[in-house]
């Protein structure tokens, strides 16, 4: 699964302003799956999303798709740290755990840092569906990123000893 050089260049052009932003680059300080950083994971998801859209002729808005994919995990913390949500107890603890809460935190961070369209906001907020049951994808771009995120997460976890992700 790979993009042509022309497709890679088009994706880089769309994401250039984000790729150079120090707040986005901060994602490279956090591990996502195995030894893959959050920044690398988000780029993997962006490439796979772009590939799905192009190869299956989905007709998605490529700008919204790429930006939403790159910022979908823009939560900016190490989710592996134990005790991050110890202030809650019982069922509340479950729903405050990273898997449930990070799409909201990522969207809030992205909204503070960048002018997001509602479509990009939905992509970020709904990428963990169906885990985030009440925040379902409402556009084709969000569905693509949701699928691409799960695909990349599985490969990154399976090949956790490799320095470079193999999914894109």
TrEMBL record:
Superkingdom of this protein's organism: Bacteria
UniProt-listed SMART domains: HDc
Organism name: Candidatus Faecalibacterium intestinigallinarum
Domain annotation HD/PDEase: ranges: 34-163
Pfam family, one: HD
InterPro entries: HD/PDEase_dom, HD_domain
Stated name of the protein: HD domain-containing protein
């Amino acid at each position: 699964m790979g993009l042509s050089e022309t497709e890679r260049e088009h994706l880089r052009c769309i994401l250039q302003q984000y790729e150079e932003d120090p707040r986005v680059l901060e994602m490279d300080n956090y591990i996502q799956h195995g030894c893959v950083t959050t920044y690398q994971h988000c780029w993997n998801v962006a490439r796979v999303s772009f590939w799905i859209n192009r190869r299956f002729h989905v007709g998605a808005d490529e700008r919204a798709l790429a930006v939403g994919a790159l910022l979908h995990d823009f939560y900016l913390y190490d989710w592996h740290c134990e005790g991050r949500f110890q202030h809650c107890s019982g069922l509340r603890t479950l729903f405050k755990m990273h898997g449930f809460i990070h799409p909201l935190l990522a969207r809030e961070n992205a909204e503070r840092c960048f002018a997001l369209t509602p479509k990009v906001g939905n992509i970020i907020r709904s990428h963990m569906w169906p885990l985030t049951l009440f925040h379902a994808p409402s556009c084709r771009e969000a569905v693509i990123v949701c699928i691409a995120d799960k695909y990349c997460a599985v490969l990154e976890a399976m090949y956790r000893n490799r320095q470079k992700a193999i999914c894109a």
